[in-house]
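From the shared-data thread, chain only:
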Amino acid sequence: MNKVMLIGNVGQDPQVKYLDQGVCVAQVRLATTERGYTLQNGTQVPDRTEWHTCIFWRKLGETVERYVHKGDKLYVEGKIQSRDWTDRSGITRKTFEIMVDNMELLSPKPSTSVGGEQQSAQPSSPAAVTPSENNGDYPF
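Structure, as tokens:
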């Protein structure tokens, strides 16, 4: 089984592109942190942060484009996929990405005050979007 579940913070605003026939694909860098601890002998083990590249397709990508920003906390589910590519100097590289199937926004919704009334800047549930299958070709 190839299943990944992550909770982390968005490191920068999403990179979003539209492919042929208006298919949206978004890329987000997500940081997850394992908290440090102290061993019995008093040695301090520091926090450890991992960075994950998450790819969102179609409606999920559009949701990311509209609602996800640097610093937001996200929960994502998906699968790990590896991809080989050649850099400018001709060296073949391998990268691992999370192909996201489901996402939930965990950051509180920002509110705006208009005429003394609080209005939400987001609809009540944009996070429950699941994309249809992707084709595996993405421009990142």
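The beta strands are 4-10, 15-18, 24-34, 37-38, 44-45, 48-57, 73-86, 92-105, 111-114, 117-120.
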